[in-house]
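Q: Fold this one first, please.
A: Sequence and structure below.
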Amino acid sequence: TPTDGWSVFDTSRPERTQLTVMNDLERIRVDPAIIRDSQTPAVLRQRFGNGSDPEAMFRMGPIPELVGRTVQSLPQSTDSPVEIQLLRYGDEVSDALNATRPCYYEGTVLSPKSADEPVVLAIAINGTIRAVTRTTSQMGIWGRWSALVPESAFHAGRNDIQFLVVNGPDWRLTPCIASGPTD
């Protein structure tokens, strides 16, 4: 959404005659045709839909087809478990109406995967894959990853959180052994 708050997909609004974008230093006026003539709105609509599905944004990882699938519906790997260190984690949710949910997870893959290629991780909440991410290099540390999961994935009380490495074209899942804030 541009800084005026109008969605680029809102056809009920009149066509823009000017577009103002702000960066840290200044306001920049841009010809609105830059959006109209761009492929970006089409890519966004393809990736996230028309806005009627609030969970579409969680399907933006490397294998979006896995989001919404149950762990049990996918083949399980016999590979050795992968070690990860969790930096941000939570599994407990209060039943209070305005309780926060632990929707952001972050960590590092420690072993045994090679640092030469990204590791694809699925995060399952209560048996259903809610996000898929991959490792990257962040601040010179290889193997870092992060993911957002939807609030709707949680129930009050303790939730079952699983971290799984996704292997091969058949998406075999290898469980992770996690250390960090869960200890």
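Q: Good. Now the second chain.
A: Here it is, same layout.
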Amino acid sequence: MLEALEAGDQIELDVTDVSDVDLSFVQMLHAAREQARRSGKTVRLRAPAGDAIVALLDRAGFLAAPTPDDLDFWFHGECPQ
């Protein structure tokens, strides 16, 4: 992922088929987003996060008070109910 960030200004990830996910996935994406931000680049999801990712974010407490940037990244603007 870091090589892709070095090669271009944006990475678009397709995580639509992700069905088994753990916290290391969220940590990796958070680190990539932060590195991209510091470099003036962007990491985004091709489509809003699916059920497995939403469930993990909820269990880990990320949905308790999400920032506008997090809502945009994970859900393309709208937090699922």
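Q: Anything worth noting on the second one?
A: The chain has four helices and two strands.
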